[in-house]
Amino acid sequence: MITALKKINGTMRFFIIVILLYGIFGVINPELIHQSLRTAGSLFMQIIPVLLLVFFIMFITNMVIDAKKITTEMQHHKGISACCLAVVFGILSAGPIYLWYPLLSDLKERGLRTSLITIFLYNRAIKLPLLPVMIYYFGWHFVLIVSILMILFSVINGFIVERLLLTPSS
After folding, report:
1. Which string of DSSP letters, residue by residue, matches 84-114?
2. Residue 145's pLDDT is what?
């Protein structure tokens, strides 16, 4: 059985282990398992509308936003408008981060400022599709304050990183 488990990928292995644990605890304390399943089902039913909204936003975002267009637009703007674009494009960017590295590296070689790359990468932490879930769990006030602080500190950190990279080391 151990060799059979080694052939199964990690996700499926975890699922099998959870099912086995539920089975063991179900024999020991069936009421605990029933309560656990009722709670999980209730939570799932509460979060389904939010998850549907998240999937819809992700679908629209992936249909509208093009990675190459974002990076070239950032290169053509200067000053405050460039910072604002880096913030907006960082928030709107989708997909795995490692796909953005080659594009950003190419733009850096063509003269895109380090501060703009830093601002862009920092703001990728603000995920539009996940904001409804965050609002559901934490409320509007929390999400608004955290998002504003993340945007503000992304700009500050962008200029700090640029300054540190321009300063010759002793």
Report:
1. HHHHHHHHH--S-GGGHHHHHHHHHHTT--H
2. 96
**Which residue from 51, 74, 28 is spatially nearest to 130, judged by alpha carbons?**
51
User: Against a cut of 0.85, is the pTM above it?
Assistant: no
CB 93 within 8 A of CB 124: yes
Residue 169: DSSP 8-state = P
Average pLDDT score over residue span 6-23: 83
- In angstroms, the Cα distances linking 75 to 41, 50, 89, 106, 152 are 48, 36, 12, 11, 21
Do 153 and 78 fall within a single domain? yes
* Backbone torsions φ then ψ of 36, nearest 5 degrees: -65, -45
Quick one: the chain helix, strand, coil %, rounded to 5?
85, 0, 15
Better-predicted residue by pLDDT, 16 or 94: 16
Same domain, 85 and 10: no
153 and 136 in a common domain: yes
